[in-house]
Write a structure and sequence with these properties.
Helices cover 25% and strands 28% of the residues. By secondary structure, the protein is α+β, with helices and mostly antiparallel strands. The protein has a single domain, classed as 4-Layer Sandwich (Double-stranded beta-helix), CATH 3.60.130.10. The strands form 6 sheets. The chain has an 8-stranded mixed beta sheet with strand order 1-2-3-18-8-20-5-4, covered by helices on one side. The chain is globular. It starts with a strand and ends with a helix. The mean pLDDT is 96. The structure holds N-oxalylglycine and manganese (II) ion (MN). The site of N-oxalylglycine has 11 residues, from strand 8, strand 19 and strand 20.
């Protein structure tokens, strides 16, 4: 029997009583889908998924992304499974060591955008018994609800441009980064895209602020001055402490988060010799907007 235990103020629930390495029952899949709409960040503790099982579970909720920066950071033979790791073997990094280390929403620069990140903790760094490398989340539905009425009216119907390269360029400025500037081919594969600033969640029906500081470069159809002014307001608003939920990792956690109404940040508070090793699948927001998903959530 699957149990769902809320673990945060608004975001965050722990789900037990389901083995993600096996096919999901329809009832469990429906319960998990509803839980994304209600808690956004779901932790499934004590799991152990090989790359095939990892993909099969993630694939239940939409099609899987092959990251533009993939190549040698994916599991051999599994281009949909990315390795996030600071482990270096024979002088070579075995994964992307600095993924997500600032506030962002996964794949908002894509069409379709991402629904879920399914991240499995293989190795978690600890110091003095305390887990390091936590992941923080912000509730963008609560942030939307709290906006002054005048701003809600102003952003209704507006779109913003999201650019993969914005986050990448910010990371390139960090000392010691292993990233290299994107090649023209990589940039061409991810041209900037526009999305509405207000996103209605397909499962909960709630509105969320979809305007992540990590990727949004400007608001469309207004002057640069107006765009800069409004973005400064929205960025400051979305980053408030009161929207935050912090996940402290345990090895064996599969943490799945709904990107449609959250932002997140990977906290880089561990040293190169303190190893953190994760495997990730990104689920696109295609199936979740289908009538089938709606029917399942209502079942
Ligand atoms: C990601 C990401 C956060 C983390 O995989 O997109 O932001 O804590 N990861 O590893
Ligand atoms: Mn991310």
């Amino acid at each position: 029997m699957l149990t769902i235990t809320p673990i945060g103020r608004t975001l965050g629930a722990r789900i037990e009583g389901v083995d993600l390495s096996r096919p999901l029952s329809r009832a469990d899949k429906a319960a998990i889908l509803r839980a994304f709409g209600r808690y956004a960040v779901l932790c499934f503790p004590k799991q152990s998924l090989d790359p095939v099982q990892h993909k099969a579970f993630a694939r239940e909720f939409g099609s899987l992304e092959v990251n533009v920066a993939a190549g040698h950071y994916t599991v051999p033979g599994h281009p949909e499974v990315m390795v996030l790791s600071n482990i270096v073997e024979n002088g070579k990094p075995i994964g992307l060591a600095d993924a997500g280390q600032d506030w962002h929403t996964d794949m908002s620069y894509s069409e379709p955008v991402a629904f879920l990140n399914v991240l499995q903790a293989i190795k978690v760094p600890f110091r003095d018994g305390v887990p390091l490398g936590c992941t923080e989340f912000l509730d963008m539905a609560a942030a939307y609800d709290d906006l002054p009425a005048a701003i809600k009216m102003r952003i209704e119907g507006m779109t913003a441009t999201h650019d993969f390269n914005k986050f990448w360029e910010e990371m390139l400025k960090r000392p010691g980064t292993q990233r290299k500037p994107l090649t023209p081919e990589q940039r061409a594969a991810k041209p900037p895209v526009s999305h509405p600033i207000v996103l209605t969640h397909p499962i909960s029906g709630r509105k969320a602020l979809y305007c992540t500081v990590g990727y949004v470069t400007h608001i469309d159809g207004v002057s640069k001055a107006e765009s800069d002014e409004l973005l400064a307001v929205l960025f400051a608003h979305q980053l408030q402490e009161k929207y935050k939920y912090k996940h402290l990792w345990s090895e064996g956690d599969v943490l799945c988060w709904d990107n449609l109404w959250t932002m997140h940040n990977a906290v880089a508070d561990y040293r190169p010799d303190e190893h953190r090793h994760m495997r990730r699948c990104q689920v696109m927001a295609d199936w979740v907007f289908s009538p089938e998903a709606k029917a399942l959530a209502a079942a």
